[in-house]
Amino acid sequence: MLMGSISFDGDENIMDILLMGYNLKKLPDNFKNIKLLGTLNLSKNKLTELPENFGDITVGGSLHLENNQLEKLPETFGNITVGGSLHLENNQLKTLPETFGNITVGGSLYLENNHLKILPVSFGNINIGKNINLGNNKLKSLPNSFTNINGSHDIQLYGNLGIQNLPLRSNQHKKQYANAPSDASIVKK
Q1: What would the pLDDT profile of 51-88 be if each residue is shown by its tens digit?
Q2: Domain range holding 2?
Q3: CATH number of the domain that 57 lies in?
Q4: C-alpha angle 49/50/55, rounded to 5°?
Q5: Domains: count for the chain
């Protein structure tokens, strides 16, 4: 395996790790406690899982896990701090860990083109600096905590044709989005 001989002890400040398109199927178990000043790009591989302590990393820039074959994320994923955007689009995610609501993302969160049917109750606790894209999943409902999302400006839900409820904060929002089709974006002011 490409990374079998790489050792991370967590004491180093690394600028970027760019391992996109290497057909990686698994990361070594010692891939944890990393503090990156820049970007971690593991996109376009064949990852099906992440090490259990993967959420203990800190990424100053963006984290790219898109275009893999991830079916689930470890429970520790909720511990993750990403200064830029978090890319989880184009995977096979069916669920998110309950701890997912603890993440901090300075940029946007991309979860489109997965197989998500439900979001964890904690989802409304996430701290997002910009936008959330949940398009083209299989969401049927949104947790009531969805209205608590901090910092997000645009929430995209297009392609989730089965959404039955759209939790809203106030009557003003209800009036504005009561007839919103499931392919609409929700803009929070």
Answers
A1: 999 999 999 999 999 999 999 999 999 999 999 999 99
A2: 1-189
A3: 3.80.10.10
A4: 145
A5: 1
